[in-house]
Amino acid sequence: MKTITLGTNYPLSKEDSVRINILKFISVLFVLYIHSYTDTIRFNGQDVSFQLSPYVEIIEYYISQVVARYAVPFFFLVSAILLFKNKRNWFDVLRNKIHTLAVPYLFWNTFWIIIFLFLQNFHLTKSFFSGRHTPILECNLKEWLGLYGIGTRYPQDYPLWFMRDLMVVILFSPLIWAIVNKFAKPAFIVTVLWIIFDPIPAPCKVAFQFFFLGACVVRLGIKLSFFDKYPMYIITMIYMFMSIIVMFIRIPVFKHIFFLVSFIFWIRCSEKLASNKRFREILLKLSFSTFFIYAAHEMTLSSFKKICAKILPRTSVSALLQYLFIPVVIVIICIVADRLVQKITPKIHKVITGSR
Questions:
Q1: Which of 18, 132, 139, 289 could join 143 in a cystine, given CB atoms 3.0 to 4.6 angstroms apart?
Q2: Each residue's pLDDT tens digit in the chain (356 positions)?
Q3: How far is it, in rounded angstroms, from Cα 149 to Cα 166?
């Protein structure tokens, strides 16, 4: 069988790895805030709305739809960098990804399908586990495939669309690397323009865009430390200026430019956080649970929000407090659950997290 080689020599220092892990935890926290953003909750086919004041709407929109939106593109970018940073046999990569991506993807979707299947059949819990989709027992074959993200935009555990798209783009990684390896600088320019102007809708588009960008970063040897020479206050001013533009001028081009500015800003922040001994230790410990939080948070978060909506007043203040604090509570719950599973059944933990 012909060997297909990916990647090049792009060594990551220990400090680079620390900064990447810190950024991964910050990004997963932002993912929770993206998913926490809503003014409507559905109970068993019926929408319950919050009457938010303009100020609360601005705060929630700014955090979830502006600041936090860089998170998933960042995960694709980092995945590409980690894939291409060493020379590797593509077939070895595919075998490895069965363990690190495919098995956890199947497990977490199946886990939540079983939870929903069970709880949709009890009167007390049915409203908390019924939304816009067909009840699981009533699903036809097409809808069952849709629960695993086949032929639908989102799987049952819908944040895992990231893993599905990542698996798809990895299948095309030899082509991506061949293009970038031969035409590194033109590919970098074209990819940046593609991200900014985003002219053509396509399946797995975000995955391909930021995988190309990550491949270019590796091929051109651009390190995290490249941005450390720029003063933090200048990068922060540019970041804040762009965030305000994106907040009030909702044009896609500005949003896509802000993605790139956000990468630079948070990479620069990672240097500051990593250099602070206290923050470094705390964030590194928390980062060990990044994948578990990503895979487990959504259904826990949505159910928690529904419970709060049932028992708490539907006022702007209440909605804002729920928005700010529920993601933090869910992160704590997921970290505790991750530690317990790891301690009680380390082999199972290894399987469901892909040995992360």
A1: 139
A2: 568 889 999 999 999 999 999 999 999 999 999 998 876 666 655 666 667 788 889 999 999 999 999 999 999 999 999 999 999 999 999 999 999 999 999 999 999 999 888 887 776 667 667 656 677 878 888 889 999 999 888 998 989 999 999 999 999 999 999 999 999 999 999 999 999 998 788 889 999 999 999 999 999 999 999 999 999 999 999 999 999 999 999 899 999 999 999 999 999 999 999 999 999 999 999 999 999 999 999 888 888 888 887 787 778 888 899 999 999 999 999 999 999 999 999 999 999 999 88
A3: 13
354 Cβ neighbours under 8 A, 6+ residues apart: 99, 100, 101, 103, 104, 291
Task: List the structure tokens of 305.
Answer: 């929000």
Residue 131 tokens read as 């939304």
Closest CA to 211 of 183, 172, 185, 262: 172
Cβ–Cβ contacts within 10 Å for residue 101, how many? 18
